[in-house]
Amino acid sequence: MPLIGRLSMDLLTLDVGTLPADQPSPGDQAELLGPGHDIDALADA
User: Fold this and answer.
1) CA distances for 39 relative to 4, 22, 24, 25, angstroms
2) Of the residues 11, 13, 24, 29, which has the fewest C-beta atoms closer than 10 A?
3) pLDDT tens-digit series, residues 8-22
4) What are the sequence ranges of the domains in the chain?
């Protein structure tokens, strides 16, 4: 998924326009950090 623009303190914009219909769509929320996500795995990505 392409990152659009810059990553700021509390905002990240991704281009989901080319994803299949059963994937996230414009306006959906995504959890990047939280109990279901390991911060170390994210840092390694």
Assistant:
1) 22, 26, 22, 24
2) 29
3) 777 777 777 788 888
4) 1-45
